[in-house]
């Protein structure tokens, strides 16, 4: 199964919108636990969330797009942009 990296960037008011939809966002991620292999916030220089990064095991780019479109952060306007890249793992030390 291919790996994809999904990088979502917050808009200028993303920090204000995040808390209100965070529980639904986390539920969305949990609902896809078989395909979300790694996820977490991207941080700005002060350590505040400025986006999110996901490592996904999905068959197609369309599945990644659907996952992203259904994310409550996307629906609420927390995210203003996204980048989807195919990814190949060469080194995996996360399980250590």
Automatic annotation (TrEMBL):
Protein name, entry field: YCII-related domain-containing protein
Gene3D superfamilies per record: Dimeric alpha+beta barrel
Domain YCII-related intervals: 4-88
Similarity field: Belongs to the YciI family.
Organism: Aquisalinus flavus
InterPro entries, alphabetized: Dimeric_a/b-barrel, Sec-metab_biosynth-assoc, YCII
Coiled coil: none
């Amino acid at each position: 199964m291919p790996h994809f990296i999904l990088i979502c960037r917050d808009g200028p008011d993303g920090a204000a919108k995040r808390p209100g939809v965070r529980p639904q966002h986390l539920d969305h991620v949990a609902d896809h636990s078989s395909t979300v292999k790694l996820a977490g916030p991207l941080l700005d220089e002060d350590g505040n969330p400025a986006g999110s990064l996901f490592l996904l095991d999905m068959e197609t780019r369309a599945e990644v797009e659907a996952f992203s479109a259904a994310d409550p952060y996307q629906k609420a306007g927390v995210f203003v942009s996204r980048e989807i890249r195919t990814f190949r793992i060469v080194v995996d030390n996360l399980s250590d």
